Amino acid sequence: MAFRKILITVDDDPLAAHAAEVGIALARSLNADVALIHAIDPSLIYSPEAGSVADDIAQHAQQEGARVVADFRARLPAGTSVLQFVRQGRPGQEIVKAAREWPADLIVIGSHGRRGLSRAVLGSVAEEVMRHSPCPVLVVRRA
């Protein structure tokens, strides 16, 4: 299988930065196209009681997501074909949806490797992506 289109998940977490660097290096070595995705979890920015304040927060989150993606895009060599996705929704679902729509040959995502209660409480976006992905998933753990 040839990996010609690599979808790389990005956010402000240092682990995500490490995973993105791995994905970018892999894309360079394979001369693959790259798409960067940042997913904004609406449950973290919206509450029905907040009203228009929530709209302001959602708009700020969208702008912040665009900034995060632009920061990672700047790390790519000039001339690299790059698509950008900033999506609002459950991160695992949005990553899988983008992989189907593009369509990606590989998804690169970071994982903290949490276990037990912290994993049950925080969930695992990487696990959800692995379970539902239409393509192989490279999970990058801490350096």
From TrEMBL:
Residues 3-141 form the UspA domain. InterPro entries: Rossmann-like_a/b/a_fold, Universal_stress_UspA, UspA. Keywords: Cytoplasm. Signal peptide: none annotated. It is found in: Cytoplasm. One of its GO terms (cellular component) is cytoplasm. Belongs to the universal stress protein A family. This is Universal stress protein. It comes from Enhydrobacter aerosaccus.
